[in-house]
Specification:
The chain is of the alpha+beta class. The protein has three domains: about 80 residues, Rossmann fold (3-Layer(aba) Sandwich); about 70 residues, 2-Layer Sandwich (Dna Ligase, domain 1), CATH 3.30.1490; about 260 residues, ATP-grasp fold, B domain (D-amino Acid Aminotransferase, Chain A, domain 1, 2-Layer Sandwich). It contains 16 helices and 19 strands. The protein has an eight-stranded antiparallel beta sheet. Strands 3-2-1-4-5 form a five-stranded parallel beta sheet, sandwiched between helices. Helix 4 crosses helix 5. The protein is globular, with a radius of gyration of 21 Å.
Amino acid sequence: MKILIISKSGDGFGIAQKMQAEGHEVRIWVKEDGFDFVLKNIVEQVSSWRPSAGNWADLVIADMVGFGRMATTLDNFEVPHVGFNQIADMMELDRAKQMQLFFKFGIETPETESFPNPTAAKSILETHTTQADFGRGFVIKPSGNLDTGKTFVTRDQETYRWALEQFSGDQDLIVQRIVEGVEISTEGWFNGEDWLTPFNHTIEYKRFLAGNLGPNTGCSGNLVWAVDKPQKDKFVENLKKLGPFLKAAGYKGPIDINTIATSGGIFALEITARIGYDAIEALYEIMTVGTQGLAGVFEDLGRGSDPTFVDLPVKQGMFGVAVRLTIPPYPHRKADKRDKGLPILGVPEDFEHFYLTDVFFNNNLLQWSASDGVLMKVGASGKTIKEAISKVYERAGSVRAEGLQYRTDIAADAERSIAQLKKWGYLPQENLLRRAIA
């Protein structure tokens, strides 16, 4: 199969390389500048997407939201496609409409207010004048596909005021009351008519440093596992409420709800209406590639295959872990192109369990492309969380590069989080979860 990946900023590089390893021909087009050398001599990158989409591809995949308007062109090309949906763009990029969607389908959210601009959001300070009123604080979330560092967790009035000053004058945003609990995402794959099975859960680690310190990177690593008994899972029950809406929107692809659970309930924080990173890499670690693999799933979605014959080839009873490996000056700014060529050593020749992103191949040497600083993701799986953690850090430890950096505690607290969710009754009392905390 010939697959074209339409990318915003290279997020889909890792899965492009894996689908090529499955035996498919893969090309990738990147919208943003600065990614010319990425995956050179590994996966073909094209300078224009239209010729490949119209005359070459059997399937076109968008690796990020924001490409919904291209659906009409792809329909005219009569090429199957996944990830091109203007409703999906709205679901993820418009924060206020996300909250309206949750409300419409009876999905509980934290205390939330939407504002047309930062000046209007200062009204929070007028009604919460003391630290006692401010309480645990507020999270400021802008709409649009902005840098993840532009989501601010503010626990005092001074930081709240400063955070608002970081946005342009016409930036719309929402402000949510901070809720303390266990954060977990729940993902399902929708084929335009119904859900594929199984669903999966993700515990994501967004902060750059161990102990959840440092800047918000969007993701530094993930733990993923398949849902065994969806009918007994409160998080899946929440997600499935969106089914009628997704069907009406003609949505095809993965979608998850990020929630925070407390003893008093489950609160939806946001929707990810696309492939999730680095969750897809962790999920891939517990997939059976076989005759279908990830490319086969996308093909079935793009062609609209009968849902009774399509499931995700995911292994039950397994945990997948992915860890992000980076190079400075990430995550503070983009790399200096003069640093391109830094040797990356210790990666196996077949790249198995390694999801290459900001690298290229030159004279049998893997080197840094100096684009965004995310070198690769490393994955592993295990029948227990501890086994998966042990494997992934053994693999990460084999990589050698000047300035290499990654978190050393991905999934380290997951057993405790799962135990708490079980105690509250949100996750079923199943063997998989008993093994997780054995």
